[in-house]
UniProtKB/TrEMBL annotation:
A GO biological process held by the record: DNA integration
UniProt key word DNA-binding: yes
PANTHER family: PHAGE INTEGRASE-RELATED, TYROSINE RECOMBINASE XERC
Organism expressing this protein natively: Deinococcus humi
Descriptive protein name: Integrase/recombinase XerC
Pfam families: Phage_int_SAM_1, Phage_integrase
Domain Tyr recombinase residues, every copy: 152-315
A single GO molecular function term of this UniProt record: DNA binding
Gene3D superfamilies: 1.10.150.130, Intergrase catalytic core (1.10.443.10)
Segments passing through the bilayer: none
SUPFAM superfamilies assigned to the protein according to its UniProt record, in alphabetical order: DNA breaking-rejoining enzymes
Keywords: DNA integration, DNA recombination, DNA-binding
Amino acid sequence: MTLVRSGDTLALTNLSDQALRVRAVEAASTYDVETLVQVTWAYMTAGSRKGARTSPKTLAAYRLAVRDFVPWAQEHGVQLLRPGRRDGGRYVAQLQTRPSQGRGRRGTLSASTVAQYVAGARALYRALSWAGATDAQPFQDAHVPPDPTPGIVKNPPYMREIDEVLQHCEPRLATLLLLCAHAGLRVSEALSVKTADIQGTTLTVHGKGGKIRRVPLGKRVRAAIAGLPPLRADGALFIWTYHQAKYRMSTAFRAAGQGHAWRGFHAARKHSGTRLYRATRDFTRVGLFLGHASVDTTRRYVALEENDVQSEVEDF
């Protein structure tokens, strides 16, 4: 399978309107998956709201979705440039009944996976419209049912696991876990930290979409960082890729007897959100700390205690 190179995407954005349209029409007519991925990436880079600041994670997710949708369309007789009005709904229905192929998983694809595939397919049609190939929008009326199980229930925050795992981490790995669990950083943000980003008790974080926020560091995080020499001339504290960091952290969880509890780095970020909310009872302050654009997002990062309002309603 051909890999999509950033140079290919840039070349598409530099084509004339007519040349881009011809390329997109040809790719859609022949179900050329990789060229359609390039067209989608070109649109996301040069035509979408976020433009060149679109995250690599989003681009990778949309690539996966296009690689799934286009072969399905070809197999089921869907003309990409002239889809039927019900074809979007057909694809959604097929996704909802498709068996999950994840390791150790049973049943059908999760609601979040279905939503991700459909988002990518919608992006493909926005890209084809941007390229002048078609105005069809087969997913405009396609309904993607939300996941009935809240994310905070499916992937709750680590709580006591943090301190237990820290005992089995070497200093640099422990610092990474503390940056996620105590400073509330995304793992990508934590892996990008450099010494110049730290000013006293504050860390300047370069977040999603190029957004910058300043995060206060607790004494435990400051002490962990202070014990780490930079690994590169630019002051980088980590040189791991995401997958290298994930492997090391999952190994530490197993060493702590918490291998069953490992749910990725995001549960550590939820740890910080949950603890800060319990201390402040203020979703707005927690959202600013975590770098969320919406308080509604923050609510999905906080595990509320049962009977949280018992004392308030006691004397109603």
